[in-house]
Write a structure and sequence with these properties.
By secondary structure, the chain is α/β, with parallel strands linked by helices. It has a single domain (4-141), classed as Severin (3-Layer(aba) Sandwich), CATH 3.40.20.10. Helices cover 31% and strands 34% of the residues. It is built from 4 helices and 7 strands. A 7-stranded mixed beta sheet has the order 1-2-4-3-5-6-7, sandwiched between helices. The protein is globular. Residues 11-143 form the ADF-H domain.
């Protein structure tokens, strides 16, 4: 039986698939990003989409629905001013204004539990429209 991490506030579970996909992204660089969604019927958080290592931030932004909430993690690679290659993981809480109130509440109350389950997140971005999570916002966080 698969192990899962329960998010106390909502009674939702983070599946092993979610944690394993995150570890694959973090350590093996198999994914550039992962989009998570709640399956309310099963009461668990599942992997909605993954982006391959060649995909970029625009691909992640395009993978988020215009009318429903999601969580996403993005592995941002960059080169520092002293020419060192670095990687930082961003957590994105996506809650567009067109999404249902119930979905917004569910995602808002579950965010901290998911962040605890996914160790190694460096920065968090909360967005209700694409401009709040633009690539410039991500780059500015690194300063």
């Amino acid at each position: 039986m698969a192990m899962a991490f329960k998010m106390a506030m909502t009674g939702m579970w983070v599946t092993e698939e979610c944690k394993n996909s995150f570890m694959e992204m973090k350590w093996m660089k198999v994914h550039r990003y992962i989009v998570f969604k709640f399956d309310e019927g099963l009461k668990q958080l599942t992997v909605d989409k993954v982006g391959g290592p060649a995909e970029g931030y625009d691909d992640l932004a395009a993978a988020l629905p215009e009318d429903d909430c999601r969580y996403a993690v993005f592995d941002f690679d960059f080169v520092t001013v002293d020419n060192c290659r670095k990687s930082k993981i961003f957590f994105i809480a996506w809650a567009p204004s067109a999404s249902r109130i119930r979905a917004k509440m569910l995602y808002a109350t579950s965010k901290d539990g998911l962040r605890r389950a996914l160790e190694g997140i460096h920065y968090e971005v909360q967005a209700t429209d694409p401009t709040e999570m633009g690539f410039d916002v991500i780059k500015d966080r690194l300063k």
